[in-house]
Every structure is written in C-alpha cells, then in structure tokens.
Design a protein that fits this description.
The structure is a single chain. By secondary structure, the chain is α/β, with parallel strands linked by helices. 48% of the residues lie in helices and 10% in strands. The protein has a single domain, classed as Phosphoenolpyruvate-binding domains (TIM Barrel), CATH 3.20.20.60. The protein has a 7-stranded parallel β-sheet, with helices on one face. Helix 4 packs parallel to helix 5 and helix 6 (142-154) packs parallel to helix 7. The longest helix has 20 residues, at 210-229. The two termini are 24 Å apart.
Amino acid sequence: MPNPWDVGSARALARLGFKALATTSAGFAWSIGRADQQVPLDEVLAHLTVMAAAVDVPFNADFEGGYAIEPEGVAANVTRAVATGIAGLSIEDSTGNAADPLFERSLAVERIRAARRAIDQSGRGAVLTGRSEGFISGRPDLEETIARLTAYAEAGADCLYAPGLKSLDDIAAVIKAVAPKPVNVLVHAPFATVAQVSDLGARRISVGGALARTAWTGFLDAAQEIAKSGTFSSFGKARPGTEMNGMFRS
C-alpha cells in the first residue's frame, strides 16, 4: 500500500498494479511547500477528495492525529474525512510535543473510540487504523507500544500500526500481540523485504513519505548540480518524456 502525494503519483502506482494506496501527510505537505504536520484540515480534506477520486483502488488516509485533541473533535473531523470518499484512515497518538510526545493512554484510547463511533455512524464502512507513534517520537518502548495497540484494537480499531519498528522480532511481537487484528508495517528504509514482512504475518505495508523523499532527492540533486556546477548530467537518469506521456495517456 504505497503512498503517493498527488494525482500523478497515485495514478502511476495504480497502473503499476498496486491494489490499494495511502496518502502521506509529509509528501502532500512538501508538494505544497510546507512542513509535515503544518497543513490545515480544510486543505487536507480537499486533498483527500481529489486523491480518492483519482484512482479506482481503495485509498487510505494518513489523517495524522485527527486534527483535534479531544475525542469529540476527532469524531467530528473523522466524519468529514470519510465523506471525501476514502476507504479508511489512521489516527495517531502523538502530541507534537517533544517533552511529552504521546497522549496519555486513556485519552488516546478515547480518541480511537470516538473515531470508531464516527465511522459507524457515517455508514460508510471505512477501515480505522490505530497508530502508536512511540518509535518515531522518542519513546521506543515495545511493551508500551503493544499495550497501546492492544487497547486501540479493543476500542474499535480495525488495523494496528506502529511506525518506526525496524526489528523483525519487534514486528513479529506486535503481530502476535494484536492477532487476529491485521497489522500495517512501515518500511521507509531498506531493512526488510515485502516477502520477509509478509512471512511474519503483516497484512499491509506502507512506505510513508519515502517515495516522495526519493522523488525530491532526484529533483534536488539535479537542481543543485545546475546551481553549483552549471552541468546537466543528472538529466541522463531521467525517464523519457515519451514514456511519461505513455503512462498517463488515456
């Protein structure tokens, strides 16, 4: 379930045969010249609407922390999100505060429960993914992560997700702990293969902003070469325009 950041990248991935896609909050933010976590809710909802309509495969939304702290606000925003046409969304438990990076567990659980209630009341059948962010927010505690994911499952999350896990043993422990609920694994560095993660029992793999970072790396390397040395050798690595036009031609 790779993560495109605009319509073109979404359509390219769908045409490569991927059966489901997911947005990336970071990739979208960079595409409009902003940092991750700095895009207002209304712009995110407009982006979700465009992305969900762009392809014929299911689209999951990276919905950050629900764009609210209190459960009631999360529920209201989830209601708006599922109306965009997305097939699912994730809710994080990170606060954005480096000194206290995770919501207190009971509040985090209530936020998931509120999102579940909002989805059920919408009648749209969207998949709810509960995310615990300890491994990417300075709290890499496997026991706490598993306790949170287990609680999110009990609160109604359909899928569980702990981005930042890079040990196959840790991934296996999470999968075992929340079974039979499915687990999403983030692979944004070359520490594992699809086959290895699949063999552990993971049901989804996403790549976060990694594809967007890879695209930006090629762009910045080529632009910096022009700016610094006045040469254009990076263009030799580019796909031909005929190939690009062929990919998007109706």
